Amino acid sequence: MESLIYNFFNLEVILKVRYLLWLGLQVTLKLSFLSLFLAILLGLVLAVLRHLRLPLLNALIIVYVDLFRALPTIVLFMLVYFAWPYIGIALPRYWAAVVSLTINGGAYFEEIFRAGIESIDKGQTEAARTLGLNFLQTMLSVILPQALRVVLAPATSNSLELIKTTVLASVIALPELMKQAEQAHGSMASPTPLVMAAIIFLVMLWPLVWLAGYLERKLAQ
Amino acid sequence: MNNALVEIDNLHKYFGRNEVLKGINLKMRRQEVVCLLGPSGAGKSTLLRCINRLEEPTSGRIFIDGEEITRHGVNLNLMRSEIGMVFQHFNLFPHLTALENCSLALIKVRRMSREKAEERAMTMLKQVGLEAKAKSKPRQLSGGQQQRVAIARALSMDPKLMLFDEPTSALDPELIGEVLEAMIKLAEAGMTMIVVTHEMGFARKAATRVCVLDNGLILEDNTPDKVFDSPEHPRTREFLSKIL
Q1: Signed CA dihedral, B172, B178, B180, B183: sign only
Q2: Nearest to A124 among B77, B91, B153 (CB)
Q3: SS3 of B171, please?
Q4: A194-218 mean pLDDT
């Protein structure tokens, strides 16, 4: 028992690395919120565009969505950070991570929003168009307010996934929470920092997990 | 000057290789009420939906108030805002109240202030006897009430023409009367209406003309009395004997 506490919950180590982890947490939070915002925006815009049913545009969106859902996210991080400079796009670590998470998350959010939009009865669009509303007005005033209720639970769940995926930014050495914990793990020769990172993630994400479940139950009624 | 409000000229519509409308010709003056009758699959709803281009006609021309609405580049949104439509399944916006259902297009399309739009929407709800339900959401209303809100919503745009696509077919029998009553009132007030319906009583009472469609063509086009009492076409007789 004593050795368990010494190895995994070492108070001395905790006090020494807490500032590093705090720095990492700040990066993780910033990265999460910005990427989440951009990914949701991208997914929503693509899902709405897809509803225009323009064959060429839809083909492009489908290629994008399928490609980035098939590509392991860790590979995407490495491509954006290590390969893009060869085609003239050299991004700093932080922005490479934002771009990777946005591209990856956007593909999933597009599918979620598309399913939500398609779940709304066609009669709603017809009624709105019959009244003279244009495509965008129909989307904003009639379809999306209904579709967003439908997608609230899966979108929350996907947001959770995206936040967890931020730890992959450690492969391009972005000093987010996981990277800081790994380094502290090495320099302190103690797994305590990893345990701390795990606890921080749990505390951050558990409420979201609960929220997703709550929304699902509530909206199912 | 052309006197017809609606003029349909040799309208054809295919769904894939299936020809649903096979050359429809129809002229309507203002204040006429035309009922479209016929067996299911005859093309009644498709014809109605071509008139505001919810369906694209394959060929043929449609004029509303002298303007060709089948012309390439016609302002569809403006055209539709002047033609009211009532659907079989009401299609009210479930996230909006009855009042908001009736004021949405006034605000978004007609650019009215919210205050003015809601005032007008309230007048329309009064017309169908539902001002007390203005703050209700569609799911809190009966089917008959929902359809009356849908009528008020269409009327709020002050349309030149109203299209009804089987407005009572989805209603419980005891709720049909209140909707038909609202429609009869509207007809008496001089609204030009095209109504796809199976309600013979309504057709007899409110229609100035009855058109019987079968297999993509208008078989019979006459006053209700003539069509119901002495139909010219044997197919009309056969159809009427099944539903009367």
Answers
A1: negative
A2: B91
A3: coil
A4: 89
Across chain B, mean pLDDT equals 93
What is the spatial distance between Cα B91 and Cα B124, in angstroms, rounded to a whole number? Answer: 17
Compute the average pLDDT of residues A172-184: 89
CB contact under 8 A, B78 and A132: yes
Give Dmax (Cα) for chain A: 74
Q: Which two structure tokens, joined as six digits, stand for B214?
A: 């079968």
Q: Is A110 left (phi over 0), alpha (psi -120 to 50) or beta?
A: alpha
Measured CA to CA, the distance from residue B81 to residue B105 in angstroms comes to 8
What residues of chain B lie within 8 A of the CB of A132, using their CB? Answer: 77-78, 80-82, 105, 109, 157
User: Which ipTM value was assigned to this complex?
Assistant: 0.93
Closest residue in B to A124 (Cα) is B91
8 Å CB contact of A145 and B85? no
**Domains parsed from chain A with CATH numbers:** 2-220 (1.10.3720.10)
Separation CA B40–CA B24 (nearest Å): 17
Pairing label, strands B67-68, B59-64: antiparallel
Residue found by looking up tokens 């745009």 in the block: B157
Non-local (6+) Cβ contacts of A66 within 8 A are none
Could you tell me which residues are beta bridge partners of residue B220? B212
CA distances from A9 to A14, A74, A185 (A): 8, 30, 12
pTM: 0.88
Q: How far apart are CA A155 and CA A145, in angstroms?
A: 14
- Which value, in Å, is the radius of gyration of the alpha carbons in chain B? 18
Angle between helices A11-50 and A192-220 (to 10 degrees): 40
Residue A2 CA from chain centroid, whole number: 39
